[in-house]
Amino acid sequence: MPSIYFTEEHDSFRAAVRRFVEEEVAPHADEWEAARAIPRDVFRRMAELGFLGICFPDAYGGADADIFFAIAFLEELARSRMGGFCAAVSVQEFMATQHIFRQGSEELKRRYLTPSITGQLVGALAITEPDTGSDVAAIRTRAVRDGDVYVVSGAKTFITNGADGDFCTLAVKTLPDAGVEGVSLLAVDLKAPGVSVTRRLSKMGWHSSDTAELLFEEARVPVSQRIGEENMGFYYLMEAFQLERLAGAAIAVGSAVLCLETTTAYLKTRQAFGKPLSRFQVLTHRLAGLAAELEAARQLTYQAAWLLQNGHDPVRECSMAKLVATELGKRVSDDCLQCFGGYGFMEEYPISRFYRDARAATIVAGTSEIMREIIARIMIEGEQPGRGRASAGVSEGRSCPVEPAVRAAIPQVPEKTVEGLMRSLPGRIRSEKVAGWRACFHFRLKDSDHPDWTVRIEEGMCAVEEGLQGSPDCLVQMKAETFLGIETGATNPQVAFMMGKVKVSDVGQMMRYVKAFRPIFT
Ligand SMILES: Cc1cc2nc3c(=O)[nH]c(=O)nc-3n(C[C@H](O)[C@H](O)[C@H](O)COP(=O)(O)OP(=O)(O)OC[C@H]3O[C@@H](n4cnc5c(N)ncnc54)[C@H](O)[C@@H]3O)c2cc1C
């Protein structure tokens, strides 16, 4: 059917992926599931076909394609009939390497990103620990600075590609007591001294993917292996979660489509009471209802992808797509298994694998409870702002000088208005925190009589002027009420950011900004 999201090019790409998966992957499903592993050759073959760098730039060996090529790819991966295969590939392309691409140095990109796109390296993303999964800020794996290395100690669990992979993007605590502000990301070789696989975990599904428990015993990781800035890891993870959720939704949609196709075909061939099962309305209506819900989940996934592609911040839509598609995936596989009767319960029928594999999807990449929590917070605390382009008008890496003439007067007790609070900033600057830092911020505050502001920091001082002046290093967008809440201490800035209520074009600059001012009324 024609689609507003997919062009003929997307359709041809989808057909190529389907051909590859049906001819070169699916026939090996039983073998790889039994071996609990995916042969390395498959990653190399996928790289040859251009499948492992779909959205990465040409400069790193990627195809520089838009997100709908990735969505088509993920949906078609499901035709492997192995949740484990989908997991291994999507972790490699849409999770482990994403951070290296977004925040990593050129050296890290050369060392890990390009070889991952060419299929020479396989990556993992290691966040979850034996004592914490959903609560990312509570991780305890420590990285202690010792000269130009970090000494890493701790344990990770449930890590996809952890046993057979080559490297991991590892979440560590660099400030143990700082909660979300103490998390950093490191690229770590899985064969490095001090890093070991303590167990390959035995699972109810996803058999072909390896899931490992990892131990770090004073592993010495060069500081140059840090991905982005120190203590910024939590924010990097939050930013990337939208793509991770979207990948989970797309795979769930693809799996459910195949599950329904397989079951519809079975109903036409299996006879009971002298007629094919497809003549029993109770069964066909059940499948029809699921097909309708699946179409809704699919369109929601596409809409979330479109928003992400177009520079919006679709926390709500990506969370909804992940929730709806993966929960539906469980129901589809359950109802389809029922249609197969006793055969559905037999290992030799693929439907039992669909059923087992669908179960993991509502746990990984953020559980359904966490998705509901995010959606509920957005419902209760209001519509997310920042639906314009993420970085319109922003020239990265450039700052504008502070003009002495525009240095604002400093009221002693600021009025709790946008203007009052903005004009109080120069009096609240912590000169010791901003020494040597030069930056220009543009604020766009929706629903305010004074929506646009420029804040410049230079030589330990701050200047504020109304309107958008010069080229900013960071564009900050939020509703005026969110700004007032943050500035008066009523709203936690980190929570507001995580919920998509604050949109920034450069998270690193914004983190420095937050620490640069004394709170008011203290
Ligand atoms: C097959 C598989 C592969 C995985 N691969 C990876 C990987 O590659 N890398 C990685 O880092 N992790 C991976 N994980 C881990 C996965 O991300 C976590 O299991 C998941 O985030 C949940 O964390 P947890 O298991 O610690 O559960 P917990 O966080 O302990 O949660 C237990 C239950 O409590 C609920 N809960 C927790 N907090 C709240 C709350 N605030 N409100 C309501 N309910 C709540 C949860 O939804 C869940 O139902 C994988 C897991 C599996 C099963």
Widest sheet: strand ordering: 13-12-11-14-15
Task: Please write the CATH class name of the largest domain.
Answer: Mainly Alpha
Beginning-to-end CA distance, first to last residue: 61 Å
Bound molecules: flavin-adenine dinucleotide
Q: Give the domain tally.
A: 4
Over all CA atoms, what is the radius of gyration? 25 Å
- Give the overall shape, derived from the CA principal axes: globular
Number of strands: 15
Strand proportion: 15-25%
Low-confidence stretches: 384-412
Task: Please count the helical segments.
Answer: 16
Find the structural class using helix and strand composition. alpha+beta
Query: Helix share of residues?
Result: 40-55%
CATH topology of the largest domain: Butyryl-CoA Dehydrogenase, subunit A, domain 3
Q: Architecture of the largest domain in CATH?
A: Up-down Bundle
> CATH superfamily of the largest domain, called what?
Butyryl-CoA Dehydrogenase, subunit A, domain 3
Biggest β-sheet: count, sense, barrel? 5 strands, mixed
Mean pLDDT: 90
